[in-house]
Amino acid sequence: MTTDRRSLLKGFAAAAATMTVVSTPAAARERKKAPSDAVGLLYDATKCVGCKACVVKCKEINALQADRRADKLYDAPEGLNEYTKNVIQLARDGGEESYVKKQCMHCVDPACVGACMLGALQKGQFGIVKYDVERCVGCRYCQMACPFNVPKFEWTSRAPKIIKCELCKERLAEGKQPGCTEVCPRKAVIFGKYDELLAEAHQRLSAEPQKYVPKVYGEHDLGGTQVLYLSHIPFESLGFRFSGERAVPDVQQTVQHGIYKGFAGPVALYALLGAVMFRNRKKGADE
Amino acid sequence: MRTQARPMGGPLLTRSYVVLLGLAALAFIIIVWRFAAGLGPTTALSDGYPWGVWIAFDVVTGTALACGGYAMALLVYIFNKGKYHPLVRPAILTSALGYSIAGLSVMIDIGRPWNAWKLPIQVWKWNVNSALLEVALCIMAYCVVLYLELVPALLEKYKGEKTTIGRIADRVLPLFDKALIFIVAFGILLPTMHQSSLGSLMMLTGPKLHPLWFSPLLPLLFLVGCVMMGFAIVVFEATFSAKAFGHKPETPMLRNLAKLSAWFSALFVIIRVVDLGVRGSLGYAFTLDTYGVMFWIETLLFLAPLLILYTKTKHYSLGNIFRQAMLLAFAGALYRFDTYLVAFNPGPGYHYFPAVPELLVTIGLVAGEIAIYIFVVKKFPIVGGELPAHA
User: Fold this and answer.
1) Percent of chain B, pLDDT > 70?
2) Could you report the predicted ipTM of this complex, rounded to two decimals?
3) Of A16, A136, A253, which has the smallest distance from its Cβ to B112's Cβ?
4) Nearest Cα to A190, choosing from A85, A88, A54, A59?
5) Which of A75, A282, B236, B267 is the most buried (most CB within 10 A)?
6) How many angstroms separate the CA atoms of A280 and B114, rounded?
7) What is the structure's pLDDT at B312?
8) Residue B217, SS3 per DSSP
9) Cβ contact B111:A153 at 8 Å
10) How far is C-alpha A210 from the geometric centre of its chain's CA atoms?
């Protein structure tokens, strides 16, 4: 029995070793860049007065109902939710306060797009992360994956959809700008080409360095986002839990591509299994 | 056939059987309610915790507990240990039922199940980067393979009969014998792929997953874990069914399987600890928070069976084997459950504890699974009786 077990363990060890070698990522995945036609938003927390005009306009354009669950009076969403693709929140950092606008960040390398089985979420024209309900099975993997908790699910619907900002892509097609930037009375949020917004953000930082935290959130964070932020309080206090340059899908796709490159691994494994069993059948069972 | 499998017979509608059916019926009623009212009113799920017990337990943990068929196929067909053949059929049956429950749970859990047919059909829409797509397709294909592997057991009963089904059995069974290699090869390839990908899945939650669980080796850990659980569950099941149906347990074989399972648990712990060390995340294990504590509970559960193995070598009785298998199955289950729920932190403001209807559905589905298992084992030749003398 001992020799028996030894040979068996040897076999398993060999199999495990093979698998480790196969799963060792060959090379890290290339860092993605925003598409050349990329557009985006630049939100400057120092300019926002919290009037919520953008919230109202967003609901009107997207035909979303008022969320009266919190105060039973008027639209008062507690955050992004199935009725709210854009929201203004009050953030605190010690004694200091700031408003913060939340909507889809339109990541350069979005986790939701990597998650989505049939491509219901995809990066489309202008780098906008768009949603196609016909391809959605409602699995909610996008919600698991999104580091900003942006995609929302219609929990009380029999035919639920994913709800998220698509940067008013229909309005852009008509040559208009998104609703939120159009109505903002203080130009706290502006719409434009991604490169120009990034340059504008840096220009503001260098013009009034005492006013800002010295960083454009979204320039590099989590692989970069097409929505950029400037703030006078730390970005963590605005509710951005994560920073760092690595895009969320990076580790997973590096590993998975290592294992499944060209689907050669599975095909080879199948052939190997078949061959071993064929030999076993010829040889007869061990005991 | 060396298996000498035979129907266990005996009365079907015992009192406990009626309880199982009752629980399954209750689950069915709740499922109807879920489709009428949506997921919000019937579950504790939220935008922060979009996956609850139906995914973390029924699918992720349930399919690993259903890896008996996978583990036994590896042992018998690849490592050519033919003497374990009597344990294959019951393992395949539990695997088929376990995976069916997982598939059913997914259909209950997803918001737009009427779009699910597109997954295997609309190939041109496939996102080849999606680990979930791979899991979904592999699980669908594996269900087909498991039921194919079961066909001989179901047809054997009618062999030689002068009825239509008897003639079909006589015609089809030799074909299955010829095709067996190709079917079984899929029966090993597919779980290797999707069980590892169940680990890869959670890599995409990135920073939301605690560093003690997040790892580029998640696929390897999930794979080793499921083989361990597969052997453990075969031991558990064989011991249990020997008691329940009053036949002699295959003690020497179960002892070896239990040992094998324990070696896999050791391999698991080594991979995990070395990986955490290499990536400099081991420090989190010594932080006294929920995560640190859960990590140690898991690790001790993985290691305890090895202790049993070493201290009880002289009295490695069936009872000890059984306890050890239970511990290992539980250890593997907890690790998976933690990876999907406890170690997943969507941020402040979100909480999840399964709602009563959610739990009743899970309990009812498992009850239904056990009821079908008992029915099939009593009516069809699945479980082997006495061991053949020459084994």
Assistant:
1) 96
2) 0.92
3) A136
4) A54
5) B236
6) 44
7) 66
8) coil
9) yes
10) 31
- A-chain CB neighbours of B223 within 8 Å are 19
Distance from CA of B326 to the nearest CA of A (A): 22
Exposure string (b/e) for B290-319, b if CB count within 10 Å is 16 or more?
Answer: ebbebbeebbebbbbbbebbeeeeeebebe
Q: Which of B108-122, B145-159, B188-202 has the lowest mean pLDDT?
A: B145-159
Give the pLDDT of residue B384. Answer: 74
Q: Is the Cβ–Cβ distance between B26 and B360 less than 8 Å?
A: yes
Q: Which residue has the tokens 């990066």?
A: A123
Residue A91 CA, chain-centre distance (Å), reads 22
- The packing angle between helices A2-23 and A249-260, to 10°, is 120
Give the sign of the dihedral formed by CA A65, CA A70, CA A72, CA A73: negative
Q: What is the amino acid identity at position B135?
A: V
The CA distances from residue B94 to B97, B100, B150, B338, in Å, are 5, 10, 10, 24
In DSSP terms, A189 is beta-bridged to A43
For residue A124, what are its two tokens? 């489309």
Q: How far apart are CA B83 and CA B87, in angstroms?
A: 9
Nearest Cα residue to A286 out of A4, A13, A2, A9: A4
3-class secondary structure, A153: strand
Q: What type of residue sits at position B340?
A: Y
CB-closest option in B129, B136, B217 to A253 = B129
Question: Residue B388's pLDDT is what?
Answer: 37
Q: Looking at residue A163, what DSSP letter applies?
A: E
- Distance from the first to the final alpha carbon of chain A: 11
Contact at CB, B51 and A144, closer than 8 angstroms: yes
In the block, residue with structure tokens 């699995």:
A139
What pLDDT score does A2 carry? 45
**Distance separating alpha carbons of residues B188 and A157, to the nearest angstrom:** 39
Nearest CA among B364, B207, B307 for reference residue A245: B207
Residue whose tokens read 């029995």: A1
Summary mean pLDDT of chain B: 91
Amino acid at B245: F
SS (H, E, C) A39-106: EEEEEECCCCCCCCHHHHHHHHHHCCCCCCCCCCCCCCCCCCECCECCEEEEEEECCEEEEEEECCCC
Our measurement of the distance from residue A60's CA atom to the centroid of its chain's CA atoms, rounded to an integer in Å, reads 25
pLDDT given at position B3: 47
CA–CA dist A164, A181 (Å, integer)? 17
Residue B176, phi-psi category: left (phi > 0), alpha (psi -120 to 50), beta (remainder):
alpha
Q: What pLDDT score was predicted for residue A263?
A: 83
What are the pLDDT digits (tens) for A7-17? 555 555 555 55
pLDDT of res. B244: 81
Cβ A164 vs Cβ A151: under 8 Å: yes
Q: Does B257 touch chain A (CB under 8 A)?
A: no
Query: Chain B within 8 Å of A89 (Cβ-Cβ)?
Result: no
Q: A147: which 2 tokens?
A: 């580091």
What local confidence, expressed as pLDDT, does residue B386 receive?
Answer: 47
Residue A107's SS3 state is: strand
On chain B, the residues whose CB falls within 8 A of the CB of A147 are 206-208
Helix, strand or coil for residue A122? strand
Give tens-digit pLDDT for A21-65: 544 544 568 889 999 999 999 999 999 999 999 999 999 999 999
Select the highest-mean-pLDDT range: B20-24, B72-76, B89-93. Answer: B20-24
SS3 category, A125? helix
Q: Identify the sign of the CA torsion A222, A227, A228, A234.
A: negative
Q: Which of A17-21, B249-253, B282-286 has the highest mean pLDDT?
A: B282-286
- Cα–Cα distance for residue pair A174/A182, rounded to 1 Å: 14
The residue of chain A with its CA nearest to that of B135 is A117
